[in-house]
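Batch manifest, entry 17 of 40.
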Amino acid sequence: MSTAAASTLDSIVEALSGVVGSENVITDVDTLTRYSSDTSLMPARMPDFVVRVMNREEVMGVIKIANENNIPVVPRSSGTGTYGTGIPEQGGIILDMSGMKRIPRVDTRNRWALFEAGVTFGELKEELDKQGMQPLNPLLPRKDKSVLTSVLEREPVLCTKTECDEPFRTMELVWGTGELLRTGAMSVDSMPAEEIPDKTKSDLCSIGGPGLDWWRLLTGCQGTFCAGTIMNVKIFHKPLLQKLVFLPFDNLADAVKPFYMIQHREIGHEAFLLNGYDIAAILAENNDEIPSLALQLPNYVIMVNLWGGQFFPEERLAYEEKAVNEIADQFRCEVKEGFAAIQDANVRLQGMLNGPWEGDVYWKDRNKGACLDIVFHSGLDKVPAHWELFKKVAGEYGVDTRELGLYIQPRQRARVCHVEFHIPCVSEAGGNLDTVKAFHRAAFEALLNAGALMYRPYYDWAEAIFARSGYTLETIKKLKKIIDPGRTMNPGKMGL
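Output type: structure tokens
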């Protein structure tokens, strides 16, 4: 390295240290290596710095310095990445926002919670428990997963109600120029967001105006436009009564019409479908029991959390239970509360629905140490064909189809479904990892060609997905140039 280059590096470190303190500008190789990869098994890429920030002012200061010096910034607020979105394609700064832990306000009347970027699902749940509320969370998120990151990644919530499908209300963010923006009702004043409801008579509920509905641009952008600092999202009152029931099926196609009917009649608060392998991965007492337990469970299970709510809970629960039994009778299937291999499955799963996965090893990784996902949108009636195609490709690569996971999450009462296919695999090079990676790519391409809507350009799939996006990609590029003219934020990635 030349003397001039070293001098420039030293001056940048000095400038960053002036914003966050020298102890929060990290350049040692071990730390940089830890931030160079995630659980996606995508190739590692080293950042030049890791900068830990604790508040909005530090975020703005770091991004301004980066923008002035043409240094890429990759924001991270979760402890673990899963799809390669936080791997720095062009080096630069990893902006670690995981220390931003404030939950300054919970509004039980309007059902929202305000929290900073580093707040995890476990931390939010603990705070909401105190006030008789619960989060709208995805299926068993990782314990170190940032809620803000999850919302921006458009991870679907378990609740299928249309009004809960998009939990994002308003947000404060920092552009790639270091400038601040607040969206929706949060934009009415520059005072601390938690003070706005009392001092301006605004309840922070409105996602629109002034100007654009920014949330439509910001969700799914992989940090390519901004770094979110604080957000408020929808929450729900805890029900006075609830009951989880199961509808098991031998064939996935047989589950389609009953599942549609359950959604059309608006039965249950949470509802989703898992195959036997995924249920075993969640409920097995020991990791090595997962393959054998999966063989003892039904092939596919619709899970419906019957909901008593806050008012007349006994009457409402009785109505929902009667309705789900009528649907089961109509389609000649059963309603169960447990399985022969796991008698208390409903009690155990119900206790897990509104919180993160608590185990040391994430449930998807328990069997083999890692897991690759294929995530897409589809109509519920089309998923059985997608699943058969996925298994067919697995067979061509010699992958055991009995150890593949399936998760279907209806959105907006099954107007569309979020679908995940899970591929457990070893995390180290060697073994069958190369084969699994080849299968992962081939299955993605086959499903894309079969009409599955790949709405997340993750892994190394972006080029194939964007090739089918028409003018959308060009529009996004133009917006990126306007909003982030220095290409500071997560260059090499693009949202869709």
